[in-house]
Amino acid sequence: MTDPIAQLRQAVALHQAGRLAEAEPLYAAALAALPGHPDALHLYGVLCAQTGRNARAVELIGAAIARKADSGAYHANLARALRAEGRLAEAVGSLRRAIALQPGADAFFSLGNILKQMGHTREALACFRCALILRPETVETRMNAAAALEALGRRDEALRQLRAALACAPADPALLFNLARTEQAAGHADNAACGYRRALRTTAEGEDSAVNLGTALLETGRPAEAVDALRRCAALAPDRPERLLALATALRRAGLVDECLAVFQRLKALTPTDPTPWQRSAEVQEAAGRRDACVATLLEVARLSREGRFHWKTAYYHLVRIGNLLVGEGRLDRVAALLPPAVAAFRGVDAELHAWALFLQGSLATRLGKEEEAQDAFRRAEPHLPFLAHIPTGDGFARRIEALPTAAETESEAAFVLEKLAPPGNGPVVVASCDSGYLERFGPLFLVSLDRFSLPGQAAHLHILDPRPDTAARVAALQERLRHVRLGWSRETSPAGLTGQERTTFYTFARFLRVPRLARLYQAPLLVTDIDACLLSEPAGFLAPLSPASPLALQYFPNNLARLYDGVGGGLVVLRPDPAVIALFDRIRRFLVSWIAERRLHYFLDQIALTAGTDDAVRRGDGPSILSIPAEGRLFRCGDGLFVQILTEKDRPGFAASVAALLDRLERTPPTADPQLDRSLILEAIGVTG
Fold first, then answer.
1. How does strand 641-645 pair with strand 486-492?
2. 171-180 contacts: CB < 8 A, separation 24 or more?
3. Are 483 and 588 found together in one domain?
4. Is the pLDDT confidence value at 208 over 70?
5. 533: exposed, middle or buried (C-beta count within 10 Å: 0-12, 13-18, 19+)?
6. Which of 72, 111, 287, 378 shows its CA 20 to 30 Å from the CA of 689?
């Protein structure tokens, strides 16, 4: 009769030799003879994990632990199988038990990797540090610690970790690449270029290093060297668009215009539905003084757009981008030279595109103080762009608000009905307005996201337009779902006699009608937002950049050629209740009321009012200093505050179901130790990835 212990030893020997197919039947036979043998269960489970059968591995190793719970190795190997099954929280628990039983560098390293995957970056870093104490020479651990430090914004510490790792492995190509990449991100372009060259000398397959070497050389002002490096990369992969784009950029910087344009021609053929090479070609042509060729490129984009290859406004967007680049350089003369032939070219392709180009002419004329030219351009474009009726020129903003009838202002103010003030806390009062439909559709997510990151006592105020009979009950039900946020609300019926489109426009700007009233009522800073959005951090963090000298923050684009309707974004506004701020929004309110009185409300009026109001304040010289809120991808950042709007995502199939599942999860579980994990959950659920 075969000795099962001998079978087990033979299985282990074959397993260690990598002969898994031969080891498996011996493990099975040993277990059949010795049911419940912990080592046989454990090792058979490890083999199953190595051959991709992780569910079976979890079953076998779990059975081993049930019989022998004091083995750190058992718990560590169970964690690997659990991680492969996507059961990360359970894997973390197993590794913590393994470490408690037998602290080891491998277990700390594995735990750090899983925690980083879950978004617990600070905890992951602590684990990597523990692993390095036990085994300081491990290059991979230092690289992962560096990645965690960089994710936490501690780039100098990340560089120190990578340099320490380099002392242990001076020829490791992955390490050299990561160090060079981090040097480049830190702005050390010369160091990065040297690092990429070292990485290229260590491996024959260093295409990423070669590409990054080219970009680093560009950053150090060596475009000719960059061209040489990027030409070689493009030759190795002639169908890789990103390689060709990098090469074209270097050629442009090196002054090789014709060769640059030839590369863009290759890109157009390679990526026929991507408008980027057309845009960049037009920019290069304009910068090289080839204005006719630039306009011809824009005209071809317009024609292709009519055929459905690109969005119909793509040529306009390209023209705006070129204009903005020139405005940023102070070259208004070149903008003035480019716009007339573009306007003429668009006339024969698309009447609405022609109108948008006319709008840019009027916008430039306004910037140059040529009021009559601006008005003429706007009059010609207005049949296709009715919102242009709202744009004031010269001192038109001041004239309009000064002529506002008292009765119109009284009627507007009487429409505001306060239902409840929220007791203000220490941070800003978060303000949003919406109609009853948006309250039902987006209110729960907006408030639960706010509640997720808020400290106890956070105040929020909803201004609800055209409320339904059950609105008060809905607000009360929303309050019941909140842990920290105390909710106030007010209501307003939209003005009589509006068309459906005009009512929608009214909904977009109604919150700005009520900013002065709410600022006076709450006597606290306000965070004014869209309701189809999510707060992704503690609201008080948004106030950090504000001060008595700079009491207002919003999306502010003063150098945008299209700024008259797109110079200020109202999706996020942070303000202190300073007199200058309240006065600014009071004038904006009166401008909006003047158009309500005329029952003329065209789209973009919310943005036009904010831009015109801030322009008026600058003109008068008594407006508040404005801080610009930058966007990082899709995230708006103000101080430590993070905010995201929900744009086209809300129209995607399955959006409502995804949000419902997210709400259920957030309401059942407390906030995590690392807010980044909660942010990731929210962004993934709403479909925002960039």
1. unpaired
2. 171/202, 172/139, 172/202, 173/199, 173/202, 173/203, 173/206, 173/209, 174/143, 175/139, 175/143, 176/202, 176/209, 177/206, 177/208, 177/209, 177/212, 178/143, 178/146, 178/147, 180/209, 180/212, 180/216
3. yes
4. no
5. buried
6. 111
The answer to whether 680 and 119 have CB atoms below 8 angstroms apart is yes
The total domain count for the chain is 3
Q: Are 159 and 117 part of one and the same domain?
A: yes
Query: Does residue 205 surpass a pLDDT of 60?
Result: no
Q: Quick check: 559 pLDDT over 70?
A: yes
Do 98 and 215 fall within a single domain?
no
Question: For residue 418, which phi and psi values (nearest 5 degrees)?
Answer: -85, 125
Q: Is the sign of the CA dihedral 138, 141, 147, 149 positive or negative?
A: negative
Burial annotation 170-205 (CB, 10 A radius, 16+ → b, else e): eebbebbbbbbbbbbeeebbebbbbbbbbbbebeee
Q: Is residue 192 part of a domain?
A: yes
Residue 602 tokens read as: 């065209």
19 and 157 share one domain: yes
**Is residue 673 one of the residues assigned to a domain?**
yes
* Rounded CA separation 110/76 (Å): 9
**Listed residues 158, 180, 202: the one ending a domain:** 180
Does residue 446 sit within a domain?
A: yes
Do β-strands 526-529 and 533-535 pair in parallel, antiparallel, or remain unpaired?
unpaired
For 274-326, the pLDDT digits (tens) are 999 999 999 999 999 999 999 999 999 999 999 999 999 999 999 999 999 99
CA distance 211 to 213: 5
Instruction: Tell me, yes or no, if the pTM score tops 0.85.
Output: no
Spatial neighbors of 251 by CB under 8 A, at least 6 apart, are 227, 257, 259, 260, 263
Report pLDDT for 232: 78
CATH number of the structural domain spanning residue 152: 1.25.40.10
Mark whether 538 and 621 lie in a shared domain.
yes
Which structural domain range is residue 233 located in?
181-271
Are 502 and 617 part of one and the same domain?
yes
Average pLDDT score, the chain: 90
Give a yes or no: residue 514 inside a domain. Answer: yes
